[in-house]
Amino acid sequence: MTHLSQERAPVLEALNRYKSMRVVPFDVPGHKRGKGNRELTEFLGEKCLTVDVNSMKPLDNLCHPVSVIKEAEELAADAFGAKHAFFMVNGTTSAVQSMVMSACKRGEKIIMPRNVHRSAINALILSGAIPVYVNPGVNKELGISLGMSVADVEQAILENPDAKAVLVNNPTYYGICSNLKAITDLAHKHNMLVLVDEAHGTHFYFGEGLPPSAMSVGADMAAVSMHKSGGSLTQSSLLLVNGLSEGYVRQIINLTQTTSGSYLLISSLDISRRNLALRGRDIFDKVSKMADYARDEINQIGGYYAYSRELINGDSIFDFDRTKLSVLTLDVGLAGIEVYDILRDDYDIQIEFGDIGNILAYLSIGDRILDLERLVSALSEIKRRYAKDRTGMLSQEYIRPQVVLGPQEAFYAECESTPLEQSLGRICGEFVMCYPPGIPILAPGEKVTAEVLEYIQYAKEKGCFMTGTQDSQVNRIQTVKE
Amino acid sequence: MFYDRYSGQSSEPNTDREGVIGLELWFTEQHTDNVTFSIKVDRQVYSGQSEFQRIDLFDSLEFGRFLTLDGYMMLTEKDEFIYHEMIVHVPMNVLPDVKNVLVIGGGDGGAVRELVRYPSIEKIDLVEIDAKVIEVCKKYLPQTACKLDDPRVSIHYADGLKFVRSKKNEYDLIIVDSTDPFGPGEGLFTKEFYGNCFKALTEKGAMVNQHESPFYPKDAVAMQRAHKRIIDSFPISRVYQAHIPTYPSGHWLFGFASKNYHPIENFDAVAWKKRELKTNYYNDKIHVGAFALPNYVKELLEEVE
Lengths: 482, 305
What we know:
The structure holds two protein chains of two kinds.
Chain A: H1 10-21, H2 38-44, H3 46-50, H4 68-80, E1 84-88, H5 91-103, E2 109-113, H6 118-127, E3 130-134, E4 138-139, E5 144-145, H7 150-159, E6 165-169, E7 176-177, H8 180-189, E8 193-198, E9 221-224, E10 237-241, H9 246-256, H10 263-301, E11 305-306, E12 319-320, E13 324-328, H11 336-347, E14 353-354, E15 358-362, H12 369-386, H13 407-412, E16 415-419, E17 432-434, E18 440-442, H14 450-461, E19 466-467, E20 476-480
Chain B: E1 26-32, E2 35-49, E3 54-60, E4 64-69, E5 72-76, H1 80-92, E6 100-105, H2 110-115, E7 123-128, H3 131-140, H4 142-145, E8 153-157, H5 160-165, E9 171-177, H6 191-200, E10 201-210, H7 217-233, E11 236-243, E12 251-258, H8 269-275, H9 284-289, H10 295-304
Parallel strand pairs in B: 6-7, 6-9, 7-8, 9-10
Antiparallel strand pairs in B: 1-2, 2-3, 3-4, 4-5, 10-12, 11-12
Helix pairs in contact in B: 6-7, 7-10
Family (chain A): Belongs to the Orn/Lys/Arg decarboxylase class-I family.
Protein name (chain A): Aminotransferase class I/II-fold pyridoxal phosphate-dependent enzyme
Domain Orn/Lys/Arg decarboxylases family 1 pyridoxal-P attachment site (chain A): 223-237
């Protein structure tokens, strides 16, 4: 096949050709290029509705691409240095799930840190794979989970030589990276696949001075959230593959992915890939500089700690993504979630999330220095108006999970709804987590401990948005019948 | 006859009428989606794009020279005195012994021109984000920019929001002479900015701000938002008005916010008279009367109080 240039955008070009053909639509979607739903067209715009179309020969088919989507996926693979790239339209969640399900069948083991996103453990429920958790390191001062140390991964590998894969966050939500290269080499030496959750790492493929990407160190698969730092539409994502059969992975994807892939999402992936390939270096250079600037300004306020590469310790913080603006708020006497709420309610500033001790502001090419000044000034004001003594602030400790049952077994076991306070010592049958960040406090199959209950209570008091349980108030949880 | 329309060397209107006979050149600003305001332009004096905005200067027969930023009217030679007198003399005759003044925005120099008339003022920090505005005004708008070289004036090219963040208990008066809250001036209409100003003021200090218009709905919403945020930050906050022909609806508001001083109760009319400053709009009766607001404006303000 001829090698297309990164300046091309095959899906975009095909949609433009299709529009100019003025084809009469007697197919779905039923809004018929927006004419059947004026209110929607008025709200989203006619340009948007005219390309909300169905799969057809000139536009290819996401489930089995043979023409323009195939070309667009090849261009993406080329841009990201992968053997193959799949366009994903069910979110990075589905990319993570497809990755896990491609690597592990029922009963097979996968080594992963416990601070994974819920989508990874969801994949275990779907596939029946068994997790082997590696405790992530913890930074006591920041109260956040870090990366996995290479020695801990090695121990898990030696103790579980039958494991099929190792899953790594690159980076964590907070920007922390494990030694991905060393872990990849180690896993490969033991014939295990390396799966990388790069939901927060799209820019690693394009920026300079950023941590290494999964494909660059020879990992086998990576789930890349193009819609986060890559600029594509929400819910669009990429699954990158190096070491597995393209056809098998596609079968796995098609188990759960829609057969009506949205061309809005698909074209946004195509256009964003082109933008990153042509301009990514400049873009992320600017973002890094903006984040560095904001960190300096925030650290000058006093009380807040906006951390960066000084944390690097050669192991559990092997690298740090300096585009992430993570700030420790505890010394101002406020939980991160409190600062998050005040920023939105009082200052009309929406940040990505606040947890017990930290806030995270997500920076991208869409930001302006003027807006960063607002964020910094608001933080300075929040300190002036609300600062309290730090006493009594709970720092977020990593709670070592006690896994009793596999996630699938526990989830499908006969469960009963149990008041939180009576659940001590029982086995949990569902998830409990704060969202964001969506890292489970309890996952199916884990024992409910006093530590966990105290943490849930505190998070609720501070106003964290709790989710995962059948009971929307999170006053009761499902526990496995004894 | 040919002349270089961009050289702008002369501030005299073009007297050679022959060259422009029949020339229908108009500056038009959209005041709402359905209302426009136009001034017949004699010639364009300057046009340039800075890092932040587009800057234009025109000469007109009716309003003299006028400055626009991103196509929005900032000032005209004919009516700028109203705005600048009202934003300076009102606080200056309420607060005792003003020594340190911070002017945010106001790169045209009009507020500074009025301020330097008070000998008690020792220091004026002018913080303008756009150096180009000052450069252009110094060159083409001497009527307002004439006192920017006064030895008491220090010009800082910075974002006002950032500049004031690190200041504490430093200024007796802060004048927020901003553009509209859409564009580079939007940070100057935020709660964090007003809170930072509160912190930067001394105990006897006050902040006066350009407070948008109550008349057209879009401006009124901006006006209400600003008011809400100011009352959240200051114990005393009052709004006053002036009539400015070239601003949307002509009905314009200012905000007076302070820690301790009331704009009418603490107004020192005797001191004002003793100063013997000649003004064209401001006087002691206007000072008090400007705080008397129409009912619809009062209602808009009360809605957010």
